[in-house]
């Protein structure tokens, strides 16, 4: 399980375990918080294709899908 602090989520780097369409390396490009400082939305960007995807930030804690850093 990857441990993530929501305040350090922005600009963090991630490697996807199952590579699809040469999209392996991602970085968090946008995070928005609600009034209670809880993560409301999270957007990641594929470094190879520059496509952006909205994801649930809690998915990044799953080590079967994501690894912290670029590997």
UniProtKB/TrEMBL annotation:
Name of the protein this chain belongs to: TIGR02450 family Trp-rich protein
């Amino acid at each position: 399980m990857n441990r993530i602090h929501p305040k350090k989520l922005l600009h963090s780097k991630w490697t996807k375990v199952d590579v699809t369409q040469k999209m392996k390396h991602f970085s968090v490009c946008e995070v928005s918080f609600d009034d209670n400082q809880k993560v409301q939305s999270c957007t990641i960007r594929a470094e190879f294709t520059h496509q952006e995807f909205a994801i649930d930030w809690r998915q990044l804690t799953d080590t079967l899908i994501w690894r912290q850093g670029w590997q």
